[in-house]
């Protein structure tokens, strides 16, 4: 079943959400995580862990790029 969330377009500089909906935007749920009573399924511990992984990867890649650019 596909869920569509209503979006507000309050500024002409906002992205055109009508076209993005046609491109097939989808919802992402992690396996085994149930929504709370308010419908929120975000697990802060998991999100913090994922952010740490992304930060570490970004720092490693940007450091490697700086070294590589120094060689050229």
From TrEMBL:
Record InterPro entries: FlgB
Keyword entries, A-Z: Bacterial flagellum, Cell projection, Cilium, Flagellum
Organism superkingdom: Bacteria
Keyword Cell division belongs to the record: no
Keyword Calcium (UniProt): no
BP GO terms, sorted: bacterial-type flagellum-dependent cell motility
Entry's Gene Ontology cellular component terms: bacterial-type flagellum basal body, rod
Subcellular location(s) of the protein: Bacterial flagellum basal body
Main localization, broad class: other
Similarity field: Belongs to the flagella basal body rod proteins family.
NCBIfam families linked: FlgB
Primary role: Structural component of flagellum, the bacterial motility apparatus. Part of the rod structure of flagellar basal body.
Protein name: Flagellar basal body rod protein FlgB
Source organism (scientific name): Helicobacter pylori (Campylobacter pylori)
Classification of source organism: Bacteria, Pseudomonadati, Campylobacterota, Epsilonproteobacteria, Campylobacterales
